[in-house]
Specification:
Distance between the termini: 94 Å
Structural class: alpha+beta
Strand content: 35-45%
Oligomer: single chain
Number of helices: 4
Strand order of the largest sheet: 1-3-2-6-5-4
Largest sheet: 6 strands, mixed, barrel
Low-confidence stretches: none
Mean pLDDT: 85
Length: 219
């Protein structure tokens, strides 16, 4: 589990006017949503959030210390100013220890596949999977080594190692990574096969393959 901790304060003024005042003071208005539908309005230091939130994903469980009371939660949504990138508001979703949750876990591939070094093309279409587990068992991310992947080989979701207590929700047949021949090579191979098949097709129809006219013999 992540060791990211945010220090926060209870926010009494949850209106837009109060939110603007907080932003001017270098703080961010936020809400912690609970499983039962409760909502706790808080605010936190903007610089601390920006620095601590680097690298966390949707499946990272962080700790929010609100006036001495801690909450375990996901960062569910971060609203930003589209002009300057300023963080305007953050939504957290609280999790409870001992209660099974469902979450998305990011998938990261690494390594230079054998098949790519042999001229193939790597495709890695999947960026995350959905799992179900207790908060303590939730992986922050899944790193997949694809260095041994050869041409025409692939890795599927069912091949991922999730760990004890983690149940897969996503389709196990989804492709995580595959290496295939370059399109140009496939087209050349197809043209070669087609050209080789022409004489055979002509013979099947009872026709002789076309021949070049004989040149006149010189005296």
């Amino acid at each position: 589990m992540s060791n990211v901790v945010f220090a926060a304060k209870n926010r009494a003024d949850a209106g837009s006017k109060g939110a603007r005042r907080l932003r001017k003071e270098g703080r961010i208005p936020a809400v912690v949503y609970g499983r039962s539908g409760t909502a706790l309005s808080i605010d936190m230091d903007a610089l601390e959030f920006i620095n601590s939130a680097k690298g966390i994903s949707e499946s990272t469980i962080v700790t929010i210390n609100v006036d001495g009371i801690t909450h375990q939660a996901f960062v569910k949504d971060t609203q930003r100013n589209i002009t300057n990138g300023q963080v305007l508001h953050v939504d957290f979703y609280e999790v409870e220890a001992g209660v099974i949750l469902r979450a998305k876990v990011s998938v990261h591939v690494h390594g230079n596949p054998v098949g790519v070094r042999e001229g193939g093309i790597l495709e890695a279409p999947l960026h995350d999977i959905e799992v179900e587990c207790l908060p303590k068992d939730l992986p922050e991310r899944l790193d997949v080594d694809i260095a041994e992947l050869k041409v025409n080989q692939s890795i599927h979701v069912r091949d991922l190692k999730l760990g004890d207590g983690v149940r897969l929700i996503s389709n196990p047949d989804q492709v995580v990574a595959l290496v295939k021949f370059a399109k140009a090579e496939v087209e050349v191979a197809a043209e070669t096969e087609a050209a080789a098949a022409e004489p055979a097709e002509a013979a099947k129809d009872g026709k002789e393959p076309a021949k070049e006219p004989a040149k006149d013999a010189k005296a």
